[in-house]
């Protein structure tokens, strides 16, 4: 368990139509900042923004699998110049939520670009719940404007326990959804009808496009989308009165597919509210293993540092432009972006099918070290436990057992691979084999 310490110049507050979000330590285009200030101006639809921020906070304090009381985790906010992105994870790490406030909903001054945490406290939640109508709301993200609502300037300190799996999940989500395609699009009326008609029980089902709507089904089929735990979509419901449409994203599936993740993107006036659900309600994103391949290659790590030097909190990262800047081939740029995502330095926006730059205000260097499979694979490689044989088969000695890895397809004779068939990333023996083969090459 990691303890994350937040230090705010004053608590966030809402008073007389002025919303001040206090920021904790983060990173901007000027480097590390104790209390960065990103934006001051109007939100053209204050009621929508208030409801979206409440939904985001609800996800951050909810444990969907085996519910129990949890502490509230402050959302991560990134200013990409033309938009504000606010992100959070559920306490069980199985739901990722993001509210994108786009340029058409912002009328004010962007003073810096960067990433930080913002304080969302109990009194602020109560105040946001009372915001109604279509009047604009004044928003200030940063300490300079907080004198509007707080005159004493008292420092607010928070220490929040963050599970290591919650931190790893930030790295996993972007790697998973970057391979998704649009699967369905519903009008506002159809979205309301479908979401309000979903069962609220556990388990998982599949949804299949049918005419202008979706129909639930018990089995996967080409074009279907997995929905694991319909109750995890609950935070969409209060936003439906503002919705202009619903888009769904997921991977390609067949009739034999197992559970997969899915993205549910609610279109709002000038904003988007996005929920990404893990393949099963009992599975957090932290164990999916989608980033492990990217963490193995030393060359990709070097490329990632080159690409990182060219980033400046852009809302959309174009691999072709980055290839021109870095003089790296586009495939290596794409691999580098995935590598940067493993440390939380980039996210992925399914609506624009593009990565975006952010810098998580956490100790992201620990993400790789926190992954037990990667630690075990590196230990096996260092112990010279891998023997490459003829026919593309490697023998990996682990403890008292020898496992056989087929290098071409990444299969293994271990229990992990037999149980998951690669559906949760490679096992430690496959990783060790690839690490060893790379060093030999």
From TrEMBL:
Keywords: Metal-binding, Zinc, Zinc-finger. InterPro entries: Znf_SWIM. Residues 403-438 form the SWIM-type domain. This is SWIM zinc finger family protein. It comes from Nocardia aurea.
């Amino acid at each position: 368990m990691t303890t994350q310490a937040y230090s705010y110049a004053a608590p966030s507050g809402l008073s007389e139509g002025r919303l001040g979000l206090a920021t904790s330590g983060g990173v901007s285009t000027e480097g590390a900042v104790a209390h960065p200030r990103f934006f001051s101006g109007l939100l053209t639809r204050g009621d929508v923004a208030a409801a979206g921020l409440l939904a985001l906070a609800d996800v951050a304090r909810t444990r969907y699998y085996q519910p129990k009381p949890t502490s509230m985790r402050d959302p991560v906010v990134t200013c990409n110049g033309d938009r504000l992105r606010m992100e959070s994870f559920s306490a069980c790490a199985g739901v990722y939520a993001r509210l994108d406030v786009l340029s058409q909903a912002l009328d004010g001054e962007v003073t810096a670009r960067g990433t930080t945490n913002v304080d969302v406290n109990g009194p602020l939640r109560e105040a946001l719940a009372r915001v109604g109508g279509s009047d604009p709301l004044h928003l200030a993200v940063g300490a300079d404007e907080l004198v509007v609502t707080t005159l004493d300037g008292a420092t607010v300190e928070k220490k929040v326990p963050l599970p290591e799996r919650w931190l790893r999940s930030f790295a996993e989500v972007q790697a998973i959804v970057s391979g998704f395609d649009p699967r369905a699009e519903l009008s506002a009326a159809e979205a309301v009808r479908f979401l309000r008609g979903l069962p609220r029980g556990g388990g998982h089902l599949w949804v299949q496009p049918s005419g202008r709507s979706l129909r639930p089904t018990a089995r996967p089929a080409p074009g279907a989308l997995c929905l694991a735990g319909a109750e995890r979509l609950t935070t969409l419901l209060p936003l439906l009165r503002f919705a202009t449409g619903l888009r769904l994203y997921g991977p390609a599936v067949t009739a034999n597919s197992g559970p997969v993740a899915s993205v549910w993107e609610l279109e709002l006036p000038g904003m988007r509210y996005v929920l990404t659900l893990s393949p099963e309600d009992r599975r957090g994103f932290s164990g999916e293993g989608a980033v492990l391949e990217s963490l193995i290659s030393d060359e990709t790590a070097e490329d990632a540092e080159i690409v990182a030097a060219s980033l400046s909190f852009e809302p959309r990262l174009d691999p072709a432009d980055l290839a021109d800047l870095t003089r790296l081939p586009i495939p290596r740029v794409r691999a580098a972006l995935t590598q940067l995502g493993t440390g939380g330095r980039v996210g992925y926006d399914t609506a624009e099918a593009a990565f975006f730059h952010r810098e998580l205000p956490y100790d992201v260097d620990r993400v790789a070290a926190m992954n037990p499979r990667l630690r075990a694979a590196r230990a096996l490689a260092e112990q010279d436990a891998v023997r490459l044989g003829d026919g593309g088969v490697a023998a990996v000695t682990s403890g008292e057992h020898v496992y056989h890895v087929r290098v071409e397809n990444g299969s293994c004779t271990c229990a992990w691979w037999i149980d998951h068939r690669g559906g949760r990333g490679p096992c430690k023996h496959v990783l060790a084999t690839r690490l060893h083969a790379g060093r030999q090459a």
